[in-house]
């Protein structure tokens, strides 16, 4: 089985792109399944089901979604193998744009959209910077100039990535993306022992443990303060 | 490159500023260090704070410089002197009915056919420089030869620029700032001159003129379209431009095509409008996912186009007069109705 990890900010078009990508796999008789990760709620599993695609969903709820992903990916891969998939796609939304779910040795695709603004590439951390492929969506509704500026900024933060324009509505570019995702010869039976490409932040403070009260005396562990004094020039 | 200080890097490759900025690396005050030494002195907390991966950055900087240098070299010669489409098959695996379609810079080819007939697929084939490896089985040749891999894989070398009716400016900048931003990303040297040139061209296309200080988001539909066309013609790196239906309002479409063609673009124009379709010398008819025919515009059609254009002028002037609160009179139109 092949595994591909899709990630990207909320509403960037991940599900639409994945659906179009899978459509082009169907004609090639490649069995594809999806595991959708989200935080509080998702309806996207129904969209996959409607398209006849085997799907599972995982809601992280009270946990950090990226931590949740890392603790569950092993079982996700087991499910995929058991279901006899040729290609398993995981889809997860980056929530604070700090972390990334990519594993070393597993293809990672970041989906971001032109509408999010040209400063977005700078704001997104490892989720964009350590992706193997970046698919930029919603190019049909912004100007060519904005598409070009956006793409050039993406490649400034991640020169190694292959950058493509994919339209989640018309499917333009989805076939092309699909050709980069599946390798017949690759066979992944387990992800045990594999490593995240980028460590998550070393944060553990009183609020992580359920503290709700505001005030210095309730703050423990890894906390950080904003700087207020003007720096002397 | 490894031994060069940041100052030397900036001098030799001014575009690395963009790399530092986009990666949130503040190099001010560290110009005398090499990039590796600069990274060494960042403390661990700061690295975690900014989610920066130390080991990969020097390699990425080298790659960025390589890509940008190649990209800038390409600018001197746009590199595309012809685009050739070789036939594949339609959705029912019926072979396409043409032998070879070659388009040269400064030529316009129209694309006609019902919505959903396979326009996007044709575009994607060109954009991807298909080599009998897409569902249609078409192949694309550039300059009569197999296309360079850069057209497929390099982020800054995309074959096709697109202009469509649905496009909007989402960025919150004035026209001037917007053009400067685009020019910078294209590493243009004479930014002021280029922005001025684009603004002038856009104003020739738009019905109502606009200034450099107008925010792009408050331009009218026609003005936006005019600015997008002039900007794509003059600044876009892509040698092929796809126009997806330009509405006949607030913009002079014939001049718009002229602007694109004067910059040696290959223009593909998807349209349902006879005035546009006949303006091209050839048109691709798409049906059921395949190219059904490639037709030359006949002399008869060119003659008809002239008549249709005069009809169009009547409609336009009637629209203008009604808008201005005038009453229309038969005598003002009669002479125009002799077809």
From TrEMBL, chain A:
All residue ranges annotated as the CobW/HypB/UreG nucleotide-binding domain in the record: 4-164
Lineage: Bacteria, Bacillati, Bacillota, Negativicutes, Selenomonadales
Organism field: Pectinatus cerevisiiphilus
Example GO molecular function: nickel cation binding
Any one biological process term the GO annotation gives: protein maturation
Protein name in UniProt: Ni2+-binding GTPase involved in maturation of urease and hydrogenase
One Pfam family matching this protein: cobW
Stored InterPro entries: CobW/HypB/UreG_nucleotide-bd, Hyd_mat_HypB, P-loop_NTPase
From TrEMBL, chain B:
Keyword terms of this UniProt record: ATP-binding, Lipoprotein, Nucleotide-binding, Transport
Every ABC transporter domain range: 80-313
GO molecular function: ATP binding; ATP hydrolysis activity
Record flagged with keyword Transmembrane helix: no
Keyword ATP-binding: yes
Database matches in InterPro entries: AAA+_ATPase (IPR003593), ABC_transporter-like_ATP-bd (IPR003439), ABC_transporter-like_CS (IPR017871), P-loop_NTPase (IPR027417)
Pfam family for this entry, one: ABC_tran
Protein family according to the UniProt entry: Belongs to the ABC transporter superfamily.
Protein's UniProt name: ABC-type lipoprotein export system ATPase subunit
Organism encoding this protein: Pectinatus cerevisiiphilus
């Amino acid at each position: 089985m092949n595994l591909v990890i899709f990630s990207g900010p909320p509403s960037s078009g991940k599900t639409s792109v994945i659906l179009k990508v899978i459509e082009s796999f169907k004609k090639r008789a490649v069995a594809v399944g999806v595991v959708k990760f989200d935080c509080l709620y998702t309806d996207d599993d129904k969209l996959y089901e409607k398209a006849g695609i085997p799907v599972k969903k995982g809601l992280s709820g009270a946990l950090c979604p990226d931590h949740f992903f890392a603790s569950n990916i092993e079982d996700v891969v087991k499910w995929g193998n058991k279901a006899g998939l040729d290609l398993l796609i995981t889809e997860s939304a980056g929530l604070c744009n700090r972390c990334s779910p990519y594993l070393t040795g597993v293809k990672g695709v970041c989906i971001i959209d032109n509408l999010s603004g040209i400063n977005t590439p700078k704001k997104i951390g490892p989720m964009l910077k350590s992706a193997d492929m970046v698919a930029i969506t919603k190019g049909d509704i912004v100007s060519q100039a904005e598409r070009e500026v956006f793409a050039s900024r993406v490649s400034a933060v991640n020169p190694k990535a292959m950058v493509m324009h994919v339209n989640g509505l018309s499917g333009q570019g989805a076939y092309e993306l699909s050709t980069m995702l599946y390798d017949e010869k690759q066979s992944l039976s387990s992800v045990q022992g594999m490593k995240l490409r980028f460590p998550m932040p070393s944060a553990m403070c009183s609020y992580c443990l359920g503290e709700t009260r505001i005030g210095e005396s309730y703050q423990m562990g890894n906390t950080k303060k904003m700087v207020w004094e003007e720096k002397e020039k | 490159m490894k031994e060069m200080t940041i100052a030397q890097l900036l001098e030799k490759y001014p575009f690395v500023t963009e790399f530092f900025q986009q990666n949130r690396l503040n190099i001010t005050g560290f110009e005398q260090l090499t990039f590796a030494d600069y990274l060494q002195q960042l403390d661990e907390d700061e690295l975690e704070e900014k989610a920066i991966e130390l080991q990969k950055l020097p390699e990425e900087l080298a790659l960025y410089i390589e890509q940008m240098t190649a990209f800038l070299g390409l600018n001197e010669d746009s590199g595309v002197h012809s685009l050739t489409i070789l036939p594949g098959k339609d959705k029912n695996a019926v072979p396409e009915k043409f032998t070879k379609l070659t388009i040269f810079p400064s030529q316009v080819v129209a694309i006609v056919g019902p919505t959903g007939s396979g326009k996007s697929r044709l575009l994607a084939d060109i954009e991807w420089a298909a080599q009998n490896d897409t569902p249609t089985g078409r192949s694309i040749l550039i300059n009569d030869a197999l296309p360079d891999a850069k057209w497929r894989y390099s982020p800054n070398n995309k074959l096709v620029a697109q202009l469509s009716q649905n496009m909007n400016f989402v960025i919150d900048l004035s026209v001037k700032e917007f053009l400067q931003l685009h020019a910078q990303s294209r590493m243009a040297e004479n930014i002021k001159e280029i922005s001025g040139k684009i603004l002038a061209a856009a104003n020739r296309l738009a019905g109502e003129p606009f200034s450099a200080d107008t925010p792009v988001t408050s331009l009218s539909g026609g003005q936006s379209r005019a600015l997008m066309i002039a900007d794509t013609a003059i600044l876009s790196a892509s040698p092929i431009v796809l126009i997806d239906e330009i509405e006949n309002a607030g913009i002079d479409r014939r001049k718009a095509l002229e602007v694109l063609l004067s910059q040696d673009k290959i223009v593909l124009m998807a349209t349902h409008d006879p005035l546009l379709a006949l303006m091209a010398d050839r048109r691709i008819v798409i049906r059921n996912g395949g190219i059904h025919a490639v037709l030359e515009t006949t002399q008869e059609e060119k003659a008809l186009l002239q008549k249709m254009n005069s009809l169009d002028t009547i409609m336009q002037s009637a629209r203008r007069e009604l808008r201005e609160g005038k009453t229309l009179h038969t005598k003002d139109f009669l002479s125009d109705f002799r077809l």
